[in-house]
Amino acid sequence: MGETDSLMMTVAVLGGTGKEGSGLAVRWALRGYRVLIGSRDAGKAMEKCVELNSALDGDYLSGTDNYSAAAEADIVVLSVPYGAHRSTLESVRDVLRGKVLVDLTVPLAPPDVRRVNVPEGKSAALEAQALLGDAVRVVAAFQNVSAEKIKDPSAEVDCDVLVCGDDAVAKAEVIRLVEAAGMRGLDAGSLANAVAVEALTPVLLYINRAYKVKGAGIRITGIEPEL
Fold first, then answer.
1. Looking at residue 13, what is its pLDDT?
2. Pairing relation of β-strands 137-140 and 160-165?
3. Is the pLDDT of residue 227 over 50?
4. Which residues lie closer than 8 Å to 68 by C-beta, 6 or more apart?
5. For residue 65, what is the enclosing H or E element?
6. Where would I find the beta strands (DSSP E) of 66-140?
7. Could you tell me how far CA 209 lies from the centroid of its own chain?
8. In angstroms, rounded to a whole number, what is the distance separating the alpha carbons of residues 22 and 16?
9. What local confidence, expressed as pLDDT, does residue 192 receive?
10. 217 in a domain, yes or no?
11. What is each CA distance from 105 to 1, 46, 59, 180, in whole angstroms?
12. Mean pLDDT, to the nearest integer, of 190-199?
């Protein structure tokens, strides 16, 4: 997908007022995507967009409620805490049919967010697919990328993004989004593999604390970068 194609693509980031969601939204907007930031509170989303647009010195982002953002979008990105995962999906389910949902959610279990927690549905992404049904193509991605790494749109992100899903076309679309955000996206197999990808996040959080670093990430070795 070139820059011309991205101008025709609308991406909605639900929960986009948070650090990771807003960081990705900015990166995509700067690459020519039309980006909508969604929130349960439309006013909060609009305030966030005013803040981000001011920092970018331009009119790049628009804010609205989650439902309206999802309804307008071609691709919907879900960036909410696990505690809000199901309720957010239920609130927009009827406008997701036929679309790609990129699920960033990690099923952390506070207060011990550095211990792997496997939910009843095995992974947040699998729970999303079960809730939404086959009419929505769920893809898991970005779980192992720290918000600390993406908040500066000019900073290089030294981290690979593992992309899991059961639809090859949807995965390819999401890998293009990963690349537009300045990272390398790798096809990591079926949506069932999201169990392992999501489980890596609390391990990385533990490593951050153990080694007194911010934003530990992953790199897959042995794959030559594309020229």
1. 98
2. antiparallel
3. no
4. 36, 38, 42
5. strand 61-65
6. 75-78, 100-103, 137-140
7. 23
8. 5
9. 98
10. no
11. 26, 23, 28, 20
12. 98
In-domain check, residue 222: no
Residues in the chain: 227
pLDDT in tens, 120-153: 999 999 999 999 999 999 999 999 999 988 999 9
Amino acid at 202: P
Q: Which two tokens stand for residue 120?
A: 């009843």
Tens of pLDDT along 66-78? 999 999 999 999 9
Structural domain total, the chain: 1
pLDDT for residue 166: 98
The radius of gyration of the chain from alpha carbons, rounded to an integer in Å, stands at 16
The predicted model gives 83-100 an average pLDDT of 98
Identify the CATH number of the domain in which residue 116 sits: 3.40.50.720
CA-wise closest residue to 144 among 53, 71, 206, 51:
206
Give the C-alpha separation, 13 to 54, whole Å: 19
CA distance 218 to 141: 13
Q: Which of 222, 164, 159, 223 minimizes the C-alpha distance to 188?
A: 164
- pTM recorded for the entire structure: 0.94
Q: Are residues 66 and 42 in contact, defined by beta-carbon separation less than 8 angstroms?
A: no
Dump pLDDT digits (tens) for 12-71. Answer: 999 999 999 999 999 999 999 999 999 999 999 999 999 999 999 999 999 999 999 999
CA distance 63 to 103: 20
Q: Tell me whether residue 215 is in a domain.
A: no
Q: Rounded to an integer, what distance in angstroms lies between the CA atom of residue 56 and that of residue 77? A: 22
Q: Confirm whether 220 is domain-assigned.
A: no
Q: Which domain holds residue 149?
A: 3-210
